[in-house]
Amino acid sequence: MSNHYDQSREREKDQIQKKTMSQQFLTFTVHQEEYGVDIMTVREIKGWSETTRLPNSPDFMRGVMNLRGLIVPIFDLRTRFSFGMTETTTKHVVIILAVGERNIGILVDTVSDILEVKQEQIKPAPAGKTQVDSAFISGLISINERMVVLLDVERLFDTRQLVQEKEQEEQVS
Questions:
Q1: From the CA atom positions of the chain, what is the Rg in Å?
Q2: Is the CA virtual torsion 149, 154, 155, 161 positive or negative?
Q3: Domain-by-domain residue ranges, the chain?
Q4: Residue 110's beta-bridge partner residues?
Q5: Residue 76 class from Cβ within 10 Å (0-12 exposed, 13-18 middle, 19+ buried)?
Q6: FRET label pair with 160: which of 3, 57, 80, 94, CA 20 to 30 Å apart?
Q7: What is the CATH number of domain 23-172?
Q8: Residues 21-45, buried b or exposed e (16+ Cβ, 10 A)?
Q9: What average pLDDT does range 139-153 have in this prediction?
Q10: Following DSSP, what letter does each residue of 24-73 receive, concatenated?
């Protein structure tokens, strides 16, 4: 009896701890919308510089950048989310992220903030049609009259997903 009671208490403690645990997100804007990524995936933030375009790459891949000897693909989130291609200026920013075993860069309009939120403050994405595919959204945070869309970068830049989208794009053309 005591063992069952102990296990039950441990589960309760785990649930309480998960609710009170906080997580940090780097927030940024794309097309006047605010997004966030887990700060633990962020490797570097740098100003925009031109990239080298690769043949047959999807429209949302701006090209590659040499980052201290490491070749990093740069993705235009505005294009990825069907807002059109970013007209880059020196004010645009590239956020270098660790996604699985590789590093990628995302082109964004501005970097906003670092938010620290409790797990219970993260709400699930609503079902239905949104500008950004809900499969790429890990949650929503509402803070001070603003809504931040949390992105699942693992899904957003999954190699199989990117290849599938490229093939579908070619079939339509």
A1: 19
A2: positive
A3: 23-172
A4: 29
A5: buried
A6: 94
A7: 2.40.50.180
A8: eebebbbbebeebbbbbbeebbeee
A9: 91
A10: EEEEEEETTEEEEEEGGGEEEEEE----BPPTT--TTEEEEEEETTEEEE
Please report, to the nearest 10 degrees, the dihedral formed by the alpha carbons of residues 33, 38, 42, 45 taken in order: 30
In DSSP notation, 8-27 reads HHHHHHHHHHHHH-EEEEEE
Report the alpha-carbon distance of residue 94 to residue 68 in Å, rounded. 15
What phi and psi, each to the nearest 5 degrees, are found at residue 20? Answer: -95, -10
CA separation for the pair 79, 86 (Å, rounded): 7
Q: Are strands 42-47 and 61-67 parallel, antiparallel or unpaired?
A: unpaired
pLDDT digit string, tens, across residues 7-47: 666 666 555 555 568 999 999 999 999 999 999 999 999 99
User: What is the rounded CA–CA span in Å between residue 86 and residue 78?
Assistant: 6
pLDDT tens digits along 71-86: 999 999 999 888 999 9
Closest CA to 122 of 146, 110, 139: 139
Please list the residues that pair with 104 across neighbouring strands: 97
Q: What would the two tokens of residue 65 be?
A: 């950048």
Residue 151's CB: how many other CB atoms inside 10 A? 26
Q: Which tokens hold the place of 46? A: 């740098």
